[in-house]
Structures are given as C-alpha cells and as structure tokens.
Amino acid sequence: MFDQTHNSKVKNEKIMRWRLDLACYKFDVIYRPGKDNASADALSRISAVVHSETSLSDLHSMLCHLGVTRMYHWGPLPSASRNRYLLTIVDAEFSRFPFAIPCPDISATTVISCLQSIFSLFGLPDYIHSDRGASFMSADLKIFLNSQGIASSRTTAYNPQGNGQVERYNGIIWKTIQLALKTKQMQIERWEERLPTALHSIRSLLCTATNVTPHERLFSHSRMSSNGRSLPDWLTKPGPVLMRNPVRENKYQLR
C-alpha cells in the first residue's frame, strides 16, 4: 500500500493523500494490534456496559405494526350487478386473513359502512394503513376512525410498494376468482357469485413456513371444508388397489 517504488495499485483517494504526505520520508509500515493501539479511537474502546434486557417481542410491540389492518379499493370490474368495486382488507399483523367486500362505489360512506360490518364481528384494530385514494383521504373517514380510537396512515404518492401486502392479495384474489369461474364455466361478469368460494380457498391455504392457514392463525382452530369428500370409483370396487398418496388429508398426517 505504501510501496516507495510507487508500484501499488491502490487508488483510494485517502491513501493517495497519505502517500503524498509521506513521500518525503523514509519509513517502514509495521502492523500494531488494536489492543496495543489505544490512542487510535479511544471512544470506541471504552469498556462501558451496553446491555439491554428488552426482548424482541417488546421491541415489536413498541416499534412495529401492532394490530395493523391494510385496505385497498380495486376496480371498476365488469359486473352483472351494481357492485363494480372490491374493497380488499388484510389483517397485516399476524394472521394475513383477507376480506374482500363488493362495493357499488368508492365513496367514504361506503368504506365506513364496510368497516363497521367488519368491526362488529372482529373488533377494532389498532391501526389502519391504506393508499392515497380519495375515499381513504376524506375527512369523513378520518373523523370516523378517530371516533373509534383507530390510528391511520397512508402510503407516499406513487409508491404502491408501501401497501404491498394488500396489493399482492388483489392479484391472488382475482386469479382465484378466475379459476373458480372457469371451473363452473361462468362469465367474468358473475365474479361476485364466486367470490365466497375464492375467499374460502385463500383462507384455507396452508402456509408451509408456519404450517398453519390464515383461518387457523386468526381463530386458533382448523377450518371445515364446504366441499366435503367423495369416494373415488376404485374404492367402491372389489380387489386390491396399490397407489401412492402424495396429498395429505390434514397437515399432521405423514406422507
């Protein structure tokens, strides 16, 4: 680095300044361990006790998103009814449990009505985060949330990543609706009829990272399927049957 023959390939500006300052001297560079170089940065070597008993859960409660609910208005969608918009709400703190409510418009009055129906069933959240839609920025919604003791925030302008969780759920919900419509060979305008089936599938989807579904995380019990089970033809016929079972009936069953 300080080769006096100037053959060094180091081009750092700070080192180059040192080389210029030391060029008129003859010297040897000798390594000195940090413990012997106490005067270099004394402040960083003060043996003070910097230890905190605060646990990670306490930090999460104080600094992170406690009881956060995210919401987003999506539409207009082709519809056979007057409901051409979809209000998507996600419990972002713990369960990732989604709600999707068909709406005729995106007014603040409609949003307040939808929130009241959810609050009556599940209680009040601590915090609501949304994008900068006109209905979410309205004074009526702010007054309603303040009256319920609910804090709120909005994303920055032109930054959909700030509400990325519910943005992602919009795509998941719509793709699931399309699959449900295709299964029944129904037109896209009848999406509202297949919305409950799509939500049931998403809420029952097992997360392999946590080994629980959104329904189990929210309600602490497994979700009963509305589709039931049917016996395959090979089971009603006599004779041995050898087959591999790649699908588990429940998450606790070993393959």
TrEMBL record:
InterPro entries: Integrase_cat-core (IPR001584), Retrovirus_Pol_polyprotein (IPR050951), RNaseH-like_sf (IPR012337), RNaseH_sf (IPR036397)
Pfam families named in the record: rve
GO molecular function: nucleic acid binding
UniProt record, GO biological process: DNA integration
All residue ranges annotated as the Integrase catalytic domain in the record: 29-222
Listed PANTHER family: INTEGRASE CATALYTIC DOMAIN-CONTAINING PROTEIN (PTHR37984:SF15), PROTEIN CBG26694 (PTHR37984)
Descriptive protein name: Integrase catalytic domain-containing protein
Originating species: Oedothorax gibbosus
